[in-house]
Amino acid sequence: xxxxxxxxxxxxxxxxxxxxxxxxxxxxxxxxxxxxxxxxxxxxxxxxxxxxxxxxxxxxxxxxxxxxxxxxxxxxxxxxxxxxxxxxxxxxxxxxxxxxxxxxxxxxxxxxxxxxxxxxxxxxxxxxxxxxxxxxxxxxxxxxxxxxxxxxxxxxxx
Length: 158
What we know:
Largest sheet: none
Number of strands: 0
Distance between the termini: 29 Å
Order of helices and strands: HHHHHHH
């Protein structure tokens, strides 16, 4: 229960490092150039650093660890092709694997400067397809089990 609560509390810290990214890149309406993408990818490591700067000595140690892991590793991929460290499988902390699913689903079904929201059906297909490559395959049943609740949430907050 404490771990679950820590993950929920830590989730808003996952993109703190984006404050260090120039707005011309952060708010770019089109695709990133290779150079812009490399700059954007630095936000994960910077998010972890900022969590430590802001929370270490202020929050409980277990929460700081969860928040750091969520922030730093939420762009790692199950297949090892993520960033910032290229971790693979269970080398990625559980809390970051959970955040990865939540972050990508949110990005798919939400409007962004560079895209319109995707339908729930399309997003579900992409998420399920990514289980075992981008995401921990054990997250599939969890994701599908709470899919209706997620859709209801996004309908209410659209």
